[in-house]
Amino acid sequence: MYHPTKNFQIYQIFAANTNLGKTIFSTGLCRSSASKFKNLKKINNNNNNNNTNINTNINTKINTNINTKINNNNLNPNLNINTNVNHKTYYLKPIQTGYSESSDENFISCFLNSEMIVKTTTLFKYEKPLSPHLAVDKSLIPKDDDVLLATKNHITECAIDASLGGGTLFLETAGGVASPTMSGTLQSEFYRPLRLPTILIGDSNLGGISTTISSFESLRLRGYDIPIILLFDNSQYKNHTFLQNYFQKNFLNQNNNNGINNISIKTIPSPPPPPPSLNHSLNKNVDILQLKKYFGELDGEFNNILEILENWHNEKFNRLNEMAECSKDVVWWPFTQYEKIDKVNVIDSAYNDFMVIYDNDQKNQGGKKSKNDGIMKEMFDASSSWWTQGLGHGSSKLSLSASYAAGRYGHVLFPECIHEPALSLSQTLLKTVGNNWATRVFFSDNGSTAVEVALKMALQSACKRYFNDQDDEFQKIKILGLYGSYHGDTIGAMDACYPNPFNKLVTWYEPRGKWFQPPRILLKNNVYNLQIPFSNQTIQYPSLSSIFSPERSISDPVSLIYKNHIKETITNYIIEGNKFGALLFEPIVMGAGGMIFVDPLFQKLLVEFVREWDGWIKYWGDNRNYEKNDNDWKGLPIIFDEVFTGFWRLGQLSGANALGVKPDIATYAKLLTGGLIPLAVTLTSTSIFSTFLGKSKVDSLLHGHSYTAHPIGCMVANTSLEEYENLIKVSNDWKIGRENWNVNKENQFWSYSSEISSTIINQLSNNSDDISILARPLGNVIYLMTSMISNIESIRKMEEKILNCLNKNL
């Protein structure tokens, strides 16, 4: 438990630059906290030695069950920290350079009064008084994960230590906001997984307004809460006066929730000249005495600062405690039956694959549940937030891209206009997912509307070739698709699907298609089973690669079964009088339909038949009055709904790549923007585009929305696609994942009854072991989805937990 609780406050201290007095402010805050909550029962033993240095080595074994340990300790956030004499104070310096001549924890210990008990700790110490990336021995650079884990571990130990009466911990960073760690990672980036409430030490010197505001924006951009900015009073430059006006104008909001997002600006007098290194303190007693006097005179100022922090802390947790119930009264959630809401997940923040969820369903010391006994719990986002997360939550690269586009453009009109993000994205898409088939990119806002656009493109093209638009039958054009498909919640996208729970109760829904029962692939007991519904056969395959083998169309006996079934079915549909304008399906995986894995050979042969069959012209004729060429779409326009499968979801650039077939039209969304912002595109060929060329505006594609090709989304999408390419080239986890795709594990079993799905969901979410999983079912299907940045360790932990849950319930 390294996140704050109501009873355990944590603040990290950043500065706008080096030498701005972080340790001065840390000392004052520690003194105030230790004095305000001092233990009246003084124990004259070794506990009075508050220099509890921990010389952490990166090879130190970390207690991986630390979360379990903290949960089993009866933290009681209901205790009144303003009067609790057992409240403890901690100071943590994860990275210290210039040690031991310059030791911030020793400085703090030196200026504490005898009755003040502060447990101080330094984790990683380096002798050279340089930036950490320069001070470290190049052959012994610790990994960021090891440094962060040591930091988390120590915070957790402090939380356990303070479980009786609560506590306050101050974590002091090294250097400035953008100063690097030993590995070179910026500290603002390095500490982001913790997202601790931040005290920013501003710069009171000439130029300090700029560095302070820039540092604030750098932290804010990464999602840090900054309740207060502290700086020294400088009567010459009066930076604090400008900063107070600036932040009051731009960030003070009287209408927000109890001022949680408001930012306070406080100053203290500058200290006397700092004492020299403590190694020479015997010769500098006068300076030390002056500084002790300075701190003593400022205890009242720091008490006021601490009170501001406590009020902010309490207001935040009060808000967290009420959010679940308040939301039930004002929010209308999608796909949610309000009569059956069991629990509302209050999301405080998210980073990479994990969401930090406030859980107030805890028991206090009396064994009773209390709304105030909440803790922050990290949970793996196993739905990838409805399949959107490609680069994880809280990506600073995506945030920077979004901010740049917002600052440069805001939003601008798109029809007959162009801006660099949209042009660059269009060119990139045509070179990647649209390579060698697409020539045009149409922008929309989400996957469902992208499908609507695709249907308009396809149906208009088919009608122009085969049917008279004055004919009554023109309004009865249907699509060919797959049973179990789902393409979105707008009317046209729903009509393109067989009746299902998503659409059958919608008043205007009218099924406008004919749907094949698709052969599906199931993995059970280490064997890939191909179930063919129209022949009542089940055929087994030894590996996934054998299913995707291009030789199957020639050597696999099911190829002939598929061809005969497809031909017979479509012929019968046409004889019955049906008229079709498109073939629409999701390549390989039908996502929202229940994560149905369709035999790629069936889809490939279906596309080939639709394109090659001469029955379309035989039964309907051909209205083309121009010279036909090989680039014309053939048979029916083929639409691939790649909203789910596009951009490496299946380990390849697109579902079309995995299928080995190119569409005439394809839709993309979800991973397009890395999971940050809505944006969708529909790609198509010149042949389809030409359908809409004419002399009248009504001949054009009449579809659009106000935020078409919004620069922010386009800019973020460009960055996302670049990051995907980089991951493929350099990510070791990607390489390992690909190598293990066909590795069979013992006792694999992926089938269960729907009656136990809710039980499994609940068991996955508990935090009694190494990982908690936030999963969301699709009907009777529980699915777990990782992002492109998921690490192998987290995946293996999830797999183990899933298997344990299944073994308990099956």
UniProtKB/TrEMBL annotation:
<dbReference type="Pfam" id="PF00202">
    <property type="entry name" value="Aminotran_3"/>
</dbReference>
<keyword id="KW-0032">Aminotransferase</keyword>
<dbReference type="InterPro" id="IPR015422">
    <property type="entry name" value="PyrdxlP-dep_Trfase_small"/>
</dbReference>
<dbReference type="GO" id="GO:0004015">
    <property type="term" value="F:adenosylmethionine-8-amino-7-oxononanoate transaminase activity"/>
</dbReference>
<dbReference type="Pfam" id="PF13500">
    <property type="entry name" value="AAA_26"/>
</dbReference>
<keyword id="KW-0663">Pyridoxal phosphate</keyword>
<keyword id="KW-0808">Transferase</keyword>
<dbReference type="GO" id="GO:0005739">
    <property type="term" value="C:mitochondrion"/>
</dbReference>
<protein>
    <submittedName>
        <fullName>PLP-dependent transferase</fullName>
    </submittedName>
</protein>
<dbReference type="GO" id="GO:0004141">
    <property type="term" value="F:dethiobiotin synthase activity"/>
</dbReference>
<dbReference type="GO" id="GO:0009102">
    <property type="term" value="P:biotin biosynthetic process"/>
</dbReference>
<dbReference type="InterPro" id="IPR005814">
    <property type="entry name" value="Aminotrans_3"/>
</dbReference>
<dbReference type="InterPro" id="IPR015421">
    <property type="entry name" value="PyrdxlP-dep_Trfase_major"/>
</dbReference>
<dbReference type="InterPro" id="IPR027417">
    <property type="entry name" value="P-loop_NTPase"/>
</dbReference>
<dbReference type="InterPro" id="IPR015424">
    <property type="entry name" value="PyrdxlP-dep_Trfase"/>
</dbReference>
<dbReference type="InterPro" id="IPR049704">
    <property type="entry name" value="Aminotrans_3_PPA_site"/>
</dbReference>
<dbReference type="GO" id="GO:0030170">
    <property type="term" value="F:pyridoxal phosphate binding"/>
</dbReference>
